Amino acid sequence: MTACMLGFRYGYRDMVDIHHRLVTEVLVIRRLRAIFGMSMGGMHAWLWAESYPDEVEAIMPVVALPTRIAGGEQDPMPLARQHAGDRGR
User: Is the dihedral of CA 8, 12, 14, 15 positive or negative?
Assistant: First the structure.
């Protein structure tokens, strides 16, 4: 979690949730063909796939792991948990 100047804390999942609201409510896009992200953007791609699996067809995280690293977010995240099974080719 990161603290902002106003004093409240936020993390990667909060950022992805805000992006999701922008995409679905403002841009009125219901399904994404692919999400490409590098570094922190790659972590966001993993979280999109986990949080909104029915709205994302594919992700391409580059230089990003589906786990939190030292100095960043603290909770471990399972590897593409939502893409296991028949969708996890």
Answer: positive
